[in-house]
From TrEMBL:
<keyword id="KW-0963">Cytoplasm</keyword>
<feature type="site" description="Part of a proton relay during catalysis">
    <location>
        <position position="46"/>
    </location>
</feature>
<dbReference type="InterPro" id="IPR020625">
    <property type="entry name" value="Schiff_base-form_aldolases_AS"/>
</dbReference>
<dbReference type="GO" id="GO:0005829">
    <property type="term" value="C:cytosol"/>
</dbReference>
<feature type="active site" description="Schiff-base intermediate with substrate">
    <location>
        <position position="164"/>
    </location>
</feature>
<keyword id="KW-0704">Schiff base</keyword>
<feature type="binding site">
    <location>
        <position position="47"/>
    </location>
    <ligand>
        <name>pyruvate</name>
    </ligand>
</feature>
<comment type="function">
    <text>Catalyzes the condensation of (S)-aspartate-beta-semialdehyde [(S)-ASA] and pyruvate to 4-hydroxy-tetrahydrodipicolinate (HTPA).</text>
</comment>
<dbReference type="GO" id="GO:0009089">
    <property type="term" value="P:lysine biosynthetic process via diaminopimelate"/>
</dbReference>
<comment type="subunit">
    <text>Homotetramer; dimer of dimers.</text>
</comment>
<dbReference type="Pfam" id="PF00701">
    <property type="entry name" value="DHDPS"/>
</dbReference>
<dbReference type="InterPro" id="IPR013785">
    <property type="entry name" value="Aldolase_TIM"/>
</dbReference>
<feature type="active site" description="Proton donor/acceptor">
    <location>
        <position position="135"/>
    </location>
</feature>
<comment type="similarity">
    <text>Belongs to the DapA family.</text>
</comment>
<dbReference type="InterPro" id="IPR005263">
    <property type="entry name" value="DapA"/>
</dbReference>
<dbReference type="GO" id="GO:0008840">
    <property type="term" value="F:4-hydroxy-tetrahydrodipicolinate synthase activity"/>
</dbReference>
<feature type="site" description="Part of a proton relay during catalysis">
    <location>
        <position position="109"/>
    </location>
</feature>
Length: 293
């Protein structure tokens, strides 16, 4: 599982001004991230606005991403939802060519019990042709996957290989690190706490900020993984304000503003998301220009 150590980027999906997927910009983004030194890419996670894409659009984006990547870095596909039956069918029908794993968020809105979350992932694990990365993000789903449920899934299913953890609960992170199988990876799902999570034994991050700052962020994460936290602290501190701006008015509107400033892709998002305010955009552009020097 060394392929999922380091910095993975939860890629944005670029759109044209008419709202259609901008495939030329997506190609530019993929090349920008790979040239920036990230270890792997995640296609159509939350940051990719996957919930606003049709099934046909998602298939095209996945296929195009695999074609452009051409085996250069590992690829992960975001496949999740709150209807277990639909998720299982999507996983079964997924064209795995060029992909190394599936990232699946815990069900949103339904607020299942821990047993419900376990059974949801059990069904996915039994159907999936690829390894699975769990994703716990209570701020979006409305429910938390407990440490006990995470460890239970990790122990019961060999193809459940990692957890993207975005709860921010360090007591929970401590429990997972203590009790998980030795080969199960704990990955930060929250950019600001990636450094302390790696200090606990985490394997890296699946990043939003990395869309705009792939070189700076992946260099910092690699220093952490080497145990050189003193050197990593400088990079960590340098992006604190930038990271705060990325989420101030919702993600991925913030990071798309930064990517537009860098000339990588536009800042169009699909409703119900909207572009950031002009005041925030000005701040993001200035900070992006400063950090990109």
């Amino acid at each position: 599982m060394n392929k999922f150590y380091g910095t993975g980027v939860a890629m944005v999906t670029p759109f044209q001004t008419d709202g259609q997927v901008d495939y030329n910009a997506l190609r530019d983004l993929i090349n920008y991230l790979i040239d920036g030194g990230v270890e792997y890419l995640v296609s159509l996670g939350t940051t990719g606005e996957s919930v606003t894409l049709s099934k046909d659009e998602k298939k095209k984006v996945w296929a195009f991403t695999a074609e452009v990547n051409n085996g250069r870095v590992p690829l992960v596909a975001g496949i999740g939802g709150n209807n277990t039956f639909d998720v299982v069918n999507e996983v079964k029908s997924f064209d795995t060519a060029g992909y190394d794993a599936i990232l699946s968020a815990s069900p949103n809105y339904n607020k299942p019990t821990q047993e419900g979350i376990y059974q949801h992932y059990k069904a996915i694990a039994e159907a999936s042709p690829l390894p699975i990365i769990l994703y716990n993000v209570p701020s979006r789903t409305g429910s938390n996957m407990s440490a006990e449920t995470t460890v239970r899934l990790a122990c019961d299913f060999k193809n459940i290989i990692a957890m993207k953890e975005a709860s921010g609960n360090f007591d929970q992170l401590n429990q997972i690190m203590r009790d998980k199988p030795s080969d199960f990876l704990l990955i930060s799902g929250d950019d600001p706490i990636s450094l302390p999570m790696i200090a606990l034994g985490g394997a890296g991050v699946i990043s939003v900020v990395g869309n705009a700052l792939p070189r700076q962020f992946s260099d910092m994460i690699r220093l952490c993984l080497k145990g050189d936290f003193k050197s990593a602290q400088k990079g960590h501190s340098s992006v604190i304000d930038f990271t705060r701006m990325m989420f101030a008015e919702g993600s991925p509107a913030g990071v798309k503003t930064a990517l537009k400033a860098l000339g990588v892709c536009g800042d169009i998002v699909r409703l119900p998301l909207v572009q950031v305010s002009s005041a925030l955009a000005d701040k993001i552009v200035k900070e992006t220009q400063k950090l990109a020097k």
